[in-house]
């Protein structure tokens, strides 16, 4: 029998297999949210959806309608843009920023 973790989401307690990712869990809860889940707060700490839950936890899923969820989304877009600029311009990109 696999180990389980207890998680509290939306005021209710649920059990998942130890090591289940937040992405996998979010699929179970997505229908309860108006907007797509994009991140989560686990025991008060911001985590990506790839985070594996290995301990009993309090989980708050975040969407674009949440301030922290929106901030995480904008930060991701910024990093993707920076990576694209670096891919296109290479070392010339740093000259644009200085």
Question: How would you describe this structure to a colleague?
Answer:
- The protein is of the alpha+beta class.
- Helices cover 38% and strands 33% of the residues.
- It is elongated.
Give a quick summary of the entry:
Helix content is 38%, strand content 33%. It is α+β, with helices and mostly antiparallel strands.
The strand count comes to 7
Q: Cα-atom Rg, whole angstroms? A: 17 Å
Distance between the ends: 58 Å
Tally of individual helices? 3
Structural class: alpha+beta
Strand content: 25-35%
H/E series, N to C? EEEHEEEEHH
What is the overall silhouette? elongated
- What's the overall average pLDDT, rounded? 91
Strand order of the largest sheet: 2-1-7-4-5
Unreliably modeled segments: none
Instruction: State the helicity in percent bands.
Output: 25-40%
Largest sheet: 5 strands, mixed
Key descriptive features of the protein:
single chain, 98 residues, alpha+beta, 3 helices, elongated
């Amino acid at each position: 029998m696999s180990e389980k973790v207890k998680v509290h989401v939306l005021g209710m307690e649920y059990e998942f297999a130890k090591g289940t990712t937040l992405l996998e869990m979010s699929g179970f809860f997505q229908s309860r949210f108006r907007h797509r889940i994009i991140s989560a707060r686990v025991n008060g700490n911001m985590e990506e959806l790839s985070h594996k839950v290995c301990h009993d936890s309090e989980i708050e899923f975040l969407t674009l309608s949440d301030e922290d969820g929106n901030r995480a989304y904008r930060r991701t877009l910024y990093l993707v843009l920076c990576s694209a600029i670096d891919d296109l311009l290479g070392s010339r990109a740093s000259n644009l920023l200085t």
